[in-house]
Amino acid sequence: MSALSTPRPGVVTVTLNAAIDQTLDVPGFAAGAVNRAVAETRTAGGKGINVAAFLAGASLAGGAVPVTATGILGEENIAVFDALFRRRGIRDRCLRLPGRSRVNIKLVDREGRSVTDINLPGLHVPAESWRGLLTVVDDLAVTNRTFVLSGSVPAGVPDTAYAEMVTALHRRGAFVVVDASGPPLRHAVAARPDMVKPNAAELAELLGRPLKDRAEVVRAARELSESGIALVVVSLGAEGAVFVEGGRALLAVPPPVEVASTVGAGDAMVAGVVAARLEGMGLEDCARRGTAFAAGTLSRLGPELPPSERLAELMRAVRVEEL
Ligand SMILES: Nc1ncnc2c1ncn2[C@@H]1O[C@H](COP(=O)(O)OP(=O)(O)O)[C@@H](O)[C@H]1O
Ligand SMILES: O=P(O)(O)OC[C@H]1O[C@](O)(COP(=O)(O)O)[C@@H](O)[C@@H]1O
User: Fold this and answer.
1) Is 1 within the bounds of a domain?
2) What is the Cα gyration radius of the chain?
């Protein structure tokens, strides 16, 4: 086969706990009071599903990259995922279980500029399904080089799930990204993935100490990077994100944008950085691309990006500072 006809190695995202995001528009939302929603939207979600959707929707130099989604879906409310996969041309290698994928509630208060997430536990995964998924992931590693392991780990799946996958995927020579929290992140970090993207709270939990200010976040990110994780991205909500690689640390601050919902901004950031890496970009452009993807999805509900000209404009408008 000539180099030109060799298929571009693809990206696989793994979502153990997929979700349908139910966004409720609740002006002036107050906990402990009677609230009224003025609008409701349901979109396919779950961290890896979102990353797959953002990547499959992005235009990359050198042509589209094949994107495969695997993980676990409930077969009773599958339509929204099937529709997303079809619309974006995402290859579907998800396992189906009896029952329904969880519906996560996102309360958006545009007046108070707040988003309240209520994430449900999700399906119980039988041991044989979990083992079956490991086989699918291993099989996908024969033809794909980049793996994104994202989101919470449902009941029935061990907290070591991502750590096991990192080890198996490294044996196959894959580049592995982990975006998780709590014990699954702690175990995964011990297996040294190639990239992690905690937010500040997840990083503080991982290191077992509070991170009081940005300087402490940067120090903690450097520590994590020095422990053997090539690229550490710590997202800080509206303040931007810190990118650390090989002793270099950058802060990337998004330009002001209209915010419809912040749900999925972290997943968009992961997708943007992966897209940049697939194009061989260096740290600064990874930071710009990741931040542009994150800023680009804020004005939309669900895993949607603006057109590529707008993304290019956002990329240029990101402020990058050497730390
Ligand atoms: N309110 C906001 N205004 C501008 N940018 C934001 C806002 N919230 C998130 N972002 C962008 O999205 C990125 C990821 O968001 P963050 O909330 O930190 O992730 P996560 O949802 O994973 O906790 C941030 O680093 C930032 O670039
Ligand atoms: O698996 P978890 O940690 O419960 O998170 C699932 C939720 O996170 C999301 O993927 C959004 O994540 P981010 O806002 O961190 O990008 C939602 O689509 C989903 O409801």
Assistant:
1) no
2) 19
Which of 105, 235, 263 has the most ligand 2 atoms within 8 A of CB, as the residue to mutate? 263
Residue whose C-alpha is closest to residue 66's, from 58, 51, 56:
56
Per-residue pLDDT of 269-280, as tens digits, reads: 999 999 999 998
Sheet holding 114-118, edge to edge: 39-45, 19-25, 102-109, 114-118
pLDDT mean across residues, the chain: 94
State residue 57's pLDDT score. 76
Task: Kindly give the number of the ligand 2 atom that is closest to the alpha carbon of 47.
Answer: 10
Distance from CA of residue 80 to its chain's centroid?
A: 19
Tell whether 166 is covered by a domain.
yes
Q: What is the mean pLDDT of residues 227-245?
A: 97
* Ligand 1 shell residues, CB under 6 Å: 199, 235-238, 240-241, 254, 259, 262, 265-266, 269, 291, 294-295, 298
Ligand 1 centroid to residue 199 C-alpha, Å: 9
Enter the ipTM: 0.98
CATH of the domain at 140: 3.40.1190.20
pTM for the complete prediction? 0.95
Percent over 90 (pLDDT), the chain: 89
Average pLDDT over residues 98-118: 92
The helix (H) or strand (E) run that includes residue 69 is strand 67-74
Res. 242 pLDDT band, cuts 50 70 90: very high
* Structural domain range at position 246: 9-322
Strand partners, 43: 21
Tell me the C-alpha distance between 290 and 250, whole Å: 13
Residue with CA at minimum distance from ligand 1 atom 23: 199
In a domain, residue 3? The reply is no
Nearest CA to ligand 1 atom 14: 266
Residue with tokens 């994107």: 67
Give the confidence band of 5 by pLDDT, cuts at 50, 70, 90.
very low
What's the number of domains the chain is made of? 1
4 occurs within a structural domain:
no
